[in-house]
Structure formats: C-alpha cells, structure tokens
C-alpha cells in the first residue's frame, strides 16, 4: 500500500510539473520571436510593420512555429470553464495569425504567377487543416465531456459573453471560407484573427476579476486590481489601433501586437505564480470543475 501511495504521489508530481512547464512555455515561446526580430533588425537595419510581415522573410519558419505552438498551448491549457472556453478560441485564432499574414495580397503581387499559386494553395491547405482539426477536437471534447459545454452559462454575463464569442466565431469562419474560396487577397483574415484573439484573451482575463457573475469562485488570487488594469489596458490598445493607423505610423500593427503580447505575458505570469505551488493531488477547486 505504501509503495502504491508513493507511486501515486510521483505521478501527481509529474502532472503538476507538466502543468507548470505548459505555463512557462507560454512565456518562453515569444522570446524566440523577440530574439529573431532583434537579430533581423540589426542585420537589415529595419523593423517590419507587423510581426507577420516576417512571414515571407528569413524568420518565417520561426514566426509560424511560435504562433502555432502558442495556439496549441492555449488550447491544451485547462482552467475554469469560462477561461478555458476563451483560451480555446484564442488558440484557434492564433493559428490563422500564423498561416495568413497581414497584407498577404500585397506580398503575393511580388511573386511570379507560379509562386503565387503555390503560396495560395499553401494558405488554403492550412486553413482547411485548421478547421478540420478544430472540428474534430470539438467533437471529441463533447464526446469525452472535456468540452465545458454549459458549465460557464450560470449567469447572464457569461451567457452574453458566450453568445457574443460564438457569433464572432461564426462571422470569422464565414470570412475565412469566403477568402479561401476567393483566394486572391485573404483580406481582413489576419486582422480579424488578431482582434478576436485579443478579445478572447480579454474574456479569459475578465474571468479572474473575482466577480461571481463571471466565475463560480474568486480566482483573482488577491490581485484583482492587476487583472482589472490588464483588461483596461488591452481595451485601450484596441482603441489606439485605428488611431495610430490613421496617424500614419507604419509600425502600428507591430506596436499593438507586441503591446498586447506583453500584457498577456504578464497575465500568464500572474496565473503561473498563483498556481505554481497549488497541490493538485487534493483535487481541483470548484472554479476549475464548474461545480
């Protein structure tokens, strides 16, 4: 019995370490892109107008790898029902940011016809793969009760947020399918995915404000003001986006992207610190199970 107990404790320790490193990876992965951008800027004496502008450059593989990895980690991470739902959506949108860069239409015009068709086919295949795999993921999640279903629909606030997220998701899918069929510019796919990613992350952060209308238990860890400030700053970034664009600042998207990434990195730091020493062997708190 003692050996069995020790074996269980070891397995629990492994599970806890896995969760810790999943959180840490969401902090470490962006560092890869930061280093690549710095090296690129030093070598070429310039900074692109957005992160995804590196898509057709030497940092393409690293950019795609970073965004896809981030998307996967966001989906894999499990938290309270509303946060889990929002981060799943954020991970979904991150995939499109990775595979459909901003101003792809302009980039395609620089290629010869044969290269254009190959690039368009590559984007179409990527879009189809994301949608199919996501559909399978949702199906399996519902079959195994992994998908949160209605656990987060316990208040009018969560219902409105969920309906809003679902409507935005449907509109985005229509846009993606339309652009994939059209296959010439893929206009607004990247921008929409980025805006919806930020919105989804905002919902995830809002779930930690300590309001019972958003989460069954207080998961703010005593730092409610930190989450509130983060949420306001993310909203301010979305407002600043068109203002900076109209001001003619070429690096507007680049600035907003890294601004939002920095805010989310701090949110993830708060979460990692709050749950670092939580003993999962004692069971998940009710906020994580929806009970």
Automatic annotation (TrEMBL):
Listed transmembrane segments: 21-42, 62-78, 85-101, 121-140, 160-181, 187-206, 227-244, 250-270
Domain of life: Bacteria
Keywords attached to this entry: Membrane, Transmembrane, Transmembrane helix
Entry protein name: DUF998 domain-containing protein
Lineage start: Bacteria, Bacillati, Actinomycetota, Actinomycetes, Micrococcales
């Amino acid at each position: 019995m003692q050996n069995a107990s020790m074996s269980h404790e070891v397995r629990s320790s492994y599970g806890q370490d896995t969760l810790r490193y999943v959180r840490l990876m969401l902090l470490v992965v962006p560092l890869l892109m930061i280093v690549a951008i710095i090296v690129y800027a030093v070598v070429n004496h310039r900074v692109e107008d957005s992160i995804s502008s590196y898509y057709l450059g030497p940092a393409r593989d690293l950019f795609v790898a970073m965004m896809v990895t981030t998307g996967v980690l966001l989906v894999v991470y499990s938290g309270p029902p509303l946060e889990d739902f929002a981060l799943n959506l954020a991970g979904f949108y991150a995939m499109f940011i990775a595979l459909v860069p901003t101003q792809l239409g302009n980039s395609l015009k620089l290629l010869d016809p044969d290269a254009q068709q190959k690039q368009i086919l590559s984007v179409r295949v990527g879009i189809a793969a994301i949608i199919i795999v996501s559909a399978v993921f949702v199906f399996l999640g519902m079959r195994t009760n992994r998908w949160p279903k209605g656990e987060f629909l316990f208040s009018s606030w969560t219902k409105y947020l969920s309906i809003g997220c679902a409507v935005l998701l449907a509109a985005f899918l229509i846009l993606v399918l339309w652009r994939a069929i059209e296959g010439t510019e893929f206009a607004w796919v990247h921008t929409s995915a980025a805006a919806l990613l930020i919105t989804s992350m905002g919902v995830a952060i809002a779930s930690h404000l300590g309001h019972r209308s958003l989460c069954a238990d207080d998961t703010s860890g005593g730092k409610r003001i930190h989450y509130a400030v983060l949420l306001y700053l993310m909203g301010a970034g979305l407002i600043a986006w068109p203002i900076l664009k109209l001001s003619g600042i070429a690096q507007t998207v680049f600035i907003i992207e890294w601004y939002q990434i920095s805010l989310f990195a701090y949110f993830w730091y708060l979460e990692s610190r709050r749950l670092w020493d939580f003993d999962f062997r004692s069971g998940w708190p009710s906020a994580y199970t929806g009970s």
